[in-house]
Write a structure and sequence with these properties.
The chain is mainly alpha-helical and 1014 residues long. Helices cover 65% and strands 4% of the residues. The chain is built from 50 helices and ten strands. The strands form three sheets. A five-stranded parallel beta sheet has the order 2-5-6-1-7, sandwiched between helices. A three-stranded antiparallel beta sheet has the order 8-10-9. 53% of the residues are buried.
Length: 1014
Amino acid sequence: MLWPVETRSVSPVFVGRTVELDTLNDTLARARAGEPQALLLGGEAGVGKTRLVEEFATAAARHAVVAVGGCVEIGADGLPFAPFSTALRALRDALPEEFAAAARGQEEELARLLPDLGEAGAGRHDEQGMARLFELTARLLEQVAAEQPVVLVLEDLHWADASTRHLLAYLFRTLRAGRLLVLASYRSDDIHRRHPLRPLLAELDRLRTVRRVELGRFTREEVGRQIAGILAAEPDPAQVDEIFERSDGNAFFVEELAVATCDGHCTGLTDSLRDLLLVRVETLPESAQRVARVVAEGGSTVEYRLIAAVAGLTEDDLIEALRACVGANILTATRTGDGYRFRHSLVREAVADDLLPGERSRLNRRYAEALEAEPALVPADARVMRLASYWYHAHDAAKALPAVLDASVAARRRHAYTEQLGLLERAMELWDSAPEEVRAALRPVDYTEVYPPCGCDPATTPLRCLDLMAEAAVAGRFGGERERALKITKRALRLLEEDPDPLRAAWFWVQRSRLVQAQARGDGWQELATAQDLVRGLPPSEVHAEVLALVANWSMLHRPGPEAFAAAERAVEYARMVGARDIELHARLTLGCLKVDSGDTETGLAEARQVLHDTLAEGVRQVAGRAYVNLPSELQSLGRDREAVPLLREGIDFARDYGLMDSEAWMRGNLSEALYSIGQWTEAAEVATRATGVGHGAKPRGAGALRLAHLALARGDLAEAGRQLAAARAHWGTHDPMPQQSLPLARVALGVAAEEGRIADARAELLRALDAGFPPGTHRYGWPLLRAAATAEAEARTLPAARTGRAEILDRLGAAARTLPTTAPLWQAYGQWTRAELRRADGTDTADDWSPVVTAFECLDRPYALARVRHRLAAALLGAAGGDDERDRAVELLRLADAVAAHLDARSLADAVARLAQRARLTLIGTPRQALAPADPAAALGLTSRERDVLRLVSVGRTNRQIAEELFISPKTASVHVSNILGKLGVSGRGEAAATAHRLGLFPAETLTAPTAG
C-alpha cells in the first residue's frame, strides 16, 4: 500500500489566507457554542481550496470531530449522496455510540445514505420519501453533535449529484440545533449559467444563516513565499515576477510553473493551460503515463485492485508506474489508502481530454469487464452505478441498457429520484440501439414498481419503453423534476394514441393531474376527469381503483357532493376486489370524512378512526399521516377541538418519527387552530410558527401562515396580520382554489380590511365568497366568515361611506345565514351570533338578542368567542338605559370578558371592553387603571375626559345625534360639549376642530368604534 510521497512541488509553508482562516475559525467557535453553522467555500480551480480546508480541518480536529466526504465523478456521472455516505461513515467510526443512539429506530431509512447500517427499507415510495430521508438525516446530525462538536466537510460540490445538492440545501435551511459546522467547497469557475449548482448557490445566498467565502488568488508577495517554500530557498525576484505574471496568482499554476522552471522544462513552454498541466505527465515513463490515463478515465478516485485489473501490467511494473506518478506529484493515495486519485482534478481533466475517442471507450470497456468479472473490486454501494457508467461510456448498448436499468433501481432505493430519472432517460436513449434479444429478456418486475401491470403478468411480459416512461414520470415527480416528468407523460400519451390502452393512458393522465397541480398550472381536474372517462366501464383494476379514489378525494376538497360519495364507495369496492390495500385505506378515509361533513357524524368518525388504527397496525405510514390530519380536522369541524388536541400531538410525534414533514405541517396548522379555539394562544402561535418552517411543500406551510394571520388580527396587530395573510396566499397560490383555504383567507382579509376602515374591500371579500357559494361540508368555514362580515357591517353602521350598497349586503348576508347548515352546537351558536350582529347592523339589537348567544357559547369550549358575545350583551344592556340590575350584570359581563382578553392578550377586545366601561362610567374591579383610563393626550388643552371622547367622534365626522348614541348621552348634552371644545381649541367650526386634533395627533392609534377582530 502506497502513501503520499512528499515532493518539492507542494510548499510545506501555508501561505496567506489569514482572513479566510479567521472566518472558518469563527464559524467553528459559534458551532462549538451550540449554534449550527453553514459555510460555502468557493474559488476557481487550483486557487487553494483543498489546502485551506486541510489546514482548517487539521486545527479543528483538536476541538471537534471532522468528517470529510467528497463528491465523486465517474466520467461525467456523480454517485448519489457520495459525500454524505463517506462523511457519515467517518462520523460513525469516530463516534460509534453517539451515532448508534441517534440512528436507533431509523436504520432502515438511513441505510439509503449509509448502506453499512443494513438493508434499506422496502415499501412503497411516495412524494415525501426524499424529504423524509432528509429530515431524518438532519435530526441524526443534530443529535450526534448535541454534545461533541462536529465539522462536516463536503468537497467538490461542483460534481455533486442532484440528490446531494437537495440534501445539502435542506440541511442549510433547517439545521437549528447541535454543535455542528457544515462546510462545502466548490469550483466557482465551473459554475456556468446552466450548471445545476448555480440555482442552489443563488438560493443559499438568500439564507441569512449561510456564510459564503470566495477564495481569491495570491498576491505577488504570497506567490514569492509559496515559491520559496517549494524551492526551500529565496527565489530570484525576476523568477517570481515571471511566475506571478504567468500564473496570475493561482496557487496550483504557481506550483506547476515553479517545478517546470526548476526541472528545466520552461524553454518553449506554450501559454496553453493544457500543455502546462501535461508537461510533467509527459516526462514520466511510458508505463506511468499509461497508468495515469487509466486512472483519469476511471473516475475521481480509483481502487488499486481495479487499476491493476485494467492497466494490464505486472504487479511490479504497476507499482513502479504508480511510484513514478506519486513521486512526480501527479497521483496521490486516497485517505483510506486503498486507491489513488489525481492530486489535482485539473491534471486529471487534462489527461482525460488528451485521450483519443477510441481509447476512451476501450478503457471504459476494460473497467466494465473487470468489474463484471470481480464485483468486489469496488465498494458494494458504488458498484452498480459505476458499472452502468462504464458500459454507457464504452458505447455498448447491449451491455449498457441492463446495467443502466439496474442502476436506476439502486438510485430509487436510495431515494435518489433525480439520478433515477437521468438513468431512465439514458435507458430510453439506448432502447432502440440495444439488440432485440436483450430487450426481450428484460422484465418490468425487475426494473419498475410504480406502473401497475394492467392485466399482464410482469414476470413473463417483456419490458416496454412505455414502462420506462412511467417509472421516469414518477421519479421526476418525486425528485422535483416535474417539467421533465410532464414532457415524458406527454410523449407517453402520444404513443398510447397510436396503440390505445385505456388503463395505461388513464394512469398517465393521473400523473399529469398531480404534476399540473404541483407546477401551479391548474387544479388537475381536467386530467383526472379524462382518466375517469378512460376507465369508465372497464373491469376493476388497481388503476381504476386509484382513479376513483383520487376523484373522490379531489371532490371532497373542491366540490363535495353525491359524486364524491359515489366515487369513494366504488374506490373502496374496487380496491378490495383487486387487493390494493393502500388505495382502499385512502378511499375509506375519504368516505369517512364525507360522511362527517354530510351529517352522518358518528359513522364517519368511526370509519376514520378505524382507518387510523389499520394503517398504524399495517405500517401504511403515508395513509396514517393523512388520517392524523383528517380525523382531528373532522372533530374540529364539530367543535370538539379539545378532543382533537391530543390526537394531533400524537400525530405530530408520528410524523416526526417517520419524516412525514408535509403531514406534520398540516397537523401543526390544525393544532394551532384547535389551541386558538380553546384559548391557548401562546402555544397556538408557537405551533403555527413551526408549521411555516417544517413543511416540504408550499401548501402545508400556508396553513401555519394563515393561523398566524388570524392570531395577529385577534391581537390587533394589523401589519403582522397583513404580512402573514400575504404569505398564506403566496403559499397556496391561485391555481387550485379550495373552500377550506379560500374561505378562511377571505375571513381574515375581511377582518383586516374592516379594522383598517376599508369597508368596500371587506365587502368585496365577502361578495367573492358568496358568489362562489358554500359547497356541502364547508359550513365550518362559512359561518366564521358570515359572522365576521356581519360584525364589520355593524361596526360601520354609522359611517357615511358604508351607506351605499349596505342594504344589498345585509340582504345577502341574511340569505346566506338562512341556508347554511348548523349541524353541530358550535355552528348553531354561530348562527345565533351572526343574526344578532345583523340586527346590530340595523340598529335594532337588544339584550334579548344577545342573551341566547351568550347562553349558547357558555356551553361550548370557546373562551374568546364567549368573551366577545358577553361584551356585546353588556353593550346592549347599557344601551337599553335599564336600572341598577342591568348595569350590575353589564359590569360582571365586562369583567369576565376583560379577564379573558387579558389572559389571551386579545388587545382589540380589551380596548373595546375598556372603552365601553369608560363611556358608561363603569369601574371594573381588578382591571388595571391604565386599561380603563389611558393617559389623555388632550389634557394640556384643558379638555375633560368626556370632551376628549366627544372630540374623537367629531374628528371622524359624527353628528351630535350619533355622538349621543355612542356615549349614551342626549343630543343636547353633546351639543354643549362640542361648543366647549370649539372654545378651548380656539376654532370656529367642527372641521377646524377635527383638523386640529389630527395635526396634534390626539388620536393616532384609535379607530372609531374599536371593533373587535377575529
